[in-house]
Amino acid sequence: MDAVIWMTGYVGSEVEFRQVREDLVFASFRLACTPRLRRGGEWSDGETTWIGVTCSRSLAENVRDSIAKGDPVVVVGKLRTSRWKDDQGVSRERLVLEALAVGHDLNRGVTGFTKNVRPPVEEVQVNLGEMVMATELQDEAWSADADSPVEAVAAVA
Hints:
The chain is α+β, with helices and mostly antiparallel strands and about 160 residues long. It has helices at about 55-65, 130-145, 150-155, and strands spanning about 5-10, 15-20, 25-35, 35-40, 40-45, 50-55, 70-85, 90-105.
């Protein structure tokens, strides 16, 4: 079962972008979440929670082009634990938010939206009539007296 959560906060680092393969890219940044607390009639900042955010593919490209350090954002994603061993062989772990969606927090300001332009998908149109006619021409070409099928098709057409 995945732990899907949403968090609001401020982008606390520059967006790091890396391309692993031509079709696989990643972006990451640190998210700072600082609660506002009211104590004794005064507002103050609580303890800041820092979490790493990672994303891939088109979301990574859009984050790279849209998000900057200091921006207020909303992140929806899967909470993961990243484990590794440091240079001294000590086991380390950190919570990471694997983003499914990232956007500006519109409670804090306004933003614009530009839709991605996707390359057109070449559709293969199959015309049954043309296929039948081509097959008939090919049959005639193979039965005709010609040195090559190409010459026979040219003669029939």
